[in-house]
Amino acid sequence: MSKGWLITGVSSGIGRLLAEQALLRGDRVVGTVRQSVHAEEFEALCEGRAVARIVDVTDEANLNAVVLEAEKILGGIDILINNAGVGLDGSFEEITSLEFRACLETNLFGTVSAIRAALPGMRNRLKGDIINIGSGAGLIGLPGLSAYSTAKFAIEGLTEALAAEVRPFGLRVMVVEPGGFRTGFGGSIAIAANTIEAYDATPGRSKRDIWHDYDANQPGDPKKLVDAILKIIEEPELPIRLIVGKHIYNLVDQKLKKFSQDMEYYKDISYSAESD
After folding, report:
1. Domain for residue 55, yes or no?
2. Which residue, of 10, 156, 211, 248, is most buried by count of CB atoms within 10 Å of its CB?
3. In which order are the strands placed within the sheet that holds 50-54?
4. Is 255 in contact with 141 (CB distance < 8 Å)?
5. How many domains does the chain fold into?
6. Structure confidence by residue, pLDDT tens digits, 155-211
7. Which domain holds residue 64?
8. Would you please indicate which residues are annotated as catalytic (active-site) residues?
């Protein structure tokens, strides 16, 4: 039986590849884009089963309308993929409040708005998967990407809490945490308007060129990433989080070991705060 997908950000990258594979499986996809040319390109993939809607996920009212329309087009949203996102390069002190908030508006609140709009329909049908595309930066804070990491860490917490809240309704929620993949995202990362010379020799600045030079040379194959997502969606149970990519897997493993060591080392101090 075919499924109905709503995917935000289908003009390129993971969102586009997921949509293409879903269409090849005979499913129907409503995808969001921000430009009319991308809407035309997307609908040309499969006339009738690929439907594009132009919307900026930071526009909550319009996004709500698109989600409700998608429910009518699809006869209910079986799978919601929150994929739309933007990067922002800059050490925390260099990033203005406006830039920081804008990063969160797209990467966090765009996801929040899409879920909020889709959830009532899924809950009433007692059926639906919500897949949030996170990042390894949501598990490991990366210097130079403090705003982006903030948003992705928030997605991690949202996913974990939401999964527990909606499990009684038969809904499943998962966050995908990719490492470095050749999606073109690295080359599209915006750079903060302010530059503070004192940060020139810091880890955040040294990674600036890496994000752009590294783009298209990452170890991860985006098609295999999409295959992994499609495979796990067919499983009877979803994990809360799916870490994809050998490099990020090993980095997270190292972090967890250090986290466990620190907990044990400071255990006495942690326990000391209990009431007598």
Report:
1. yes
2. 10
3. 50-54, 28-33, 4-8, 79-82, 129-133, 172-178, 241-244
4. no
5. 1
6. 999 999 999 999 999 999 999 998 765 555 555 678 898 999 999 989 887 666 665
7. 4-244
8. 148
